[in-house]
Design brief:
The structure is a single chain. With 96 residues, the protein is mainly α. It is built from four helices and no strands. 5% of the residues are buried.
Amino acid sequence: MEKIETLEAALKRIAELESENEKLREELEYYKNRKMSGRQKHNAKWMAIYNDFVAGYESGMTMIEIAKRNNVSERTIYRYKAYYDKMRNTKENVLE
């Protein structure tokens, strides 16, 4: 980068940087507003199925029954179980 020695050169460089900042702000706004793809963890649907899993699991239902009742895969139910176990262990550790 060259050294700026005159007021005109400084003003020109400031104008270039302001233009660059405006372009970057527009790009940032695009990324802020875009919809993220993939599984959205812990959204309303996830919580509804998880709460149903907890109720079914604690009442003695099998994983397959819970999966069919919620129209999800068994793998999804086992993910809920892992989360359930993690939360229980966390709660038990806090109580000790």
